[in-house]
Amino acid sequence: MNSVPIFDSLTHPMPNGNWLKHSKIINNFIENQLESMSNFNISHALAVGLGSSIGDYNESEYAKFIYKFSKKIYPIAFFDFSKIKKSNQIYSYLTYLKDLGYIGIKIHPRISGINYSHNLLAEIIVKANELDLGILLCTYFWNKLSSYGASGIHGLYDLLRIIPEQKIILMHGGCIHLLELAEISRQFPNILLDLSFTIIKYEFSSVDLDIQYLFRHFDRRICIGSDSPEFHHSKLRERFDTFSLSIEKYKAENIAYKNLMNYFKIYE
Q1: Which residue range(s) make up the domain with 240?
Q2: 133, 129, 254, 149: which is closest to 195 by C-alpha?
Q3: Is 1 a member of any domain?
Q4: pTM (two decimals)
Q5: Which of 69, 133, 136, 128 lies closest to 108 in space, CA to CA?
Q6: Can you give the CATH number for the domain in which 255 is found?
Q7: Alpha-carbon dihedral sign for residues 26, 30, 36, 42
Q8: Is 171's pLDDT higher than 90?
Q9: In CA terms, which of 212, 215, 216, 249 is 20 to 30 Å from 173?
Q10: pLDDT tens digits for 35-48?
Q11: Nearest alpha-carbon partner for 53 in 32, 23, 27, 33
Q12: 73-78, strands of its sheet edge to edge
């Protein structure tokens, strides 16, 4: 399946090449990502900021920085909850991000210090959809400072029930709760379940069986990504090719790139 191009749902190339403070990863430059994409048939990618403390990310400059290098890497803005205190500030902030060239926003509850019951979260998602901005919502639930209910899969389910028709990409697919979150997602027609991080992180665990099941039976509702620089494109390619061996090519193409292209209305 190496001939099937991949649209990487989650990468984080940073202007200064740095990454998380505790990480040993270096050389997180966009030039390295472009070379890696070329080597492993990664045709497109989302470039996602995680706030000003990581990699010299600058909200007002990051989209321009990404487009300077490639028209097939699309910038996603970190949604900064410190910029909004009231409901009437949401639309103007989202419009500002769209005007900068971002095609979507990343909502990261753990970094932002919120949970899925945040009083403005549902409205943010609705207004982002109205502006045709994609929504990447992190579903890595584990944080020792968080309440598991409001910050976990039950809190996420409660949020989705409030906004059942909204388009959202659930990043990482709930990780070890992948199959459970897939069953929840079935009830909401515009949810795309992302397997970035999860498809690589849990290799040789029982999660492999869940991924195999979804590749066979849920191909129109999932997408994949590397979570680069946490994982290399070579590993994403290896894992995708492994899971694609026993499925039809059209299903592999849905998972690899078509679902994300349809979500963002990218046709090229």
Answers
A1: 6-264
A2: 254
A3: no
A4: 0.95
A5: 136
A6: 3.20.20.140
A7: positive
A8: yes
A9: 249
A10: 999 999 999 999 99
A11: 23
A12: 6-11, 42-48, 73-78, 104-107, 134-138, 168-171, 191-194, 222-223
